[in-house]
Amino acid sequence: MAEDSESEIEAIDFAVAAYREEGIWQLHALDQAKLESVDSIARELRRYPGDNGAIGLLSVDEDFFVIVRARGAHVTVLLSDASAATDWSLARSVTDFVGVPVEDDDEPAPAGDLAIFADMGIPAMDMGLMLDDLDLYPDEQLSDIASKLGFGPRFDELAGLGS
Questions:
Q1: Which of 22, 97, 148, 155 has the lowest CB atom count within 10 Å?
Q2: DSSP-assigned letter for residue 28
Q3: Closest by CA position to 13, among listed 53, 55, 69, 66
Q4: First vs last Cα of the chain: how many Å apart?
Q5: Alpha carbon of 109 to those of 49, 68, 136: distances in Å?
Q6: Which are the contacts of 94, defined by CB distance < 8 A and separation ≥ 6?
């Protein structure tokens, strides 16, 4: 099992923490070795002194993304494709966290809180529309989300995404 965990950690394309301090977005790369589950990601995010918590944006194997938002003990999550839970333990930790059962034959669909950024200007309906764009890779979707939140170029640079 430890070998599976290591290979999954190596499959993380990037992991970025974002938080606002005194109204200014701060971004940092997260230590991928500490990102095995929703709980471990939330624990890492709580280290940052954000005005309204911290956000973790992770892309995995160009297959799916995970967003975790930790505000003290309150944690919300969004998984771009719940069907990834059949193959990836990180995705499974999200579906377990939100209580969504996943079967091998399930169609790709998001799981978690589509309103995760409603208070920051991205209503649930808009997030749902963004996730419906199947032409975009997970890193491109996260880049769009980061842009709408106000830290797109810095996110793209830190995540190693070209313009």
A1: 22
A2: E
A3: 66
A4: 38
A5: 32, 17, 14
A6: 38, 66, 77, 78, 79, 82, 85, 111, 112
**Tokens encoding 140:** 């491109």
Identify any residues that bridge with 58 across adjacent strands, giving them in sequence order: 15, 66
Angle at 163 between CA 128 and CA 118, to 5 degrees: 25
| pLDDT tens-digit readout, 17-62 | 999 999 899 999 999 888 999 999 999 999 998 888 999 999 999 9
**Distance between CA 6 and CA 8 in Å, rounded?**
5
The conformation of residue 161, written as its DSSP 8-state character, comes to: -
Query: Strands, E, within 72-119: which ranges?
Result: 74-79, 111-112
For 155, left (φ over 0), alpha (ψ -120 to 50), or beta? alpha
DSSP 8-class letter at 51: B
Name residue 8's amino acid. E
Amino acid, res. 91 = A
Sheet holding 64-71, edge to edge: 24-29, 12-21, 54-60, 64-71, 74-79, 111-112
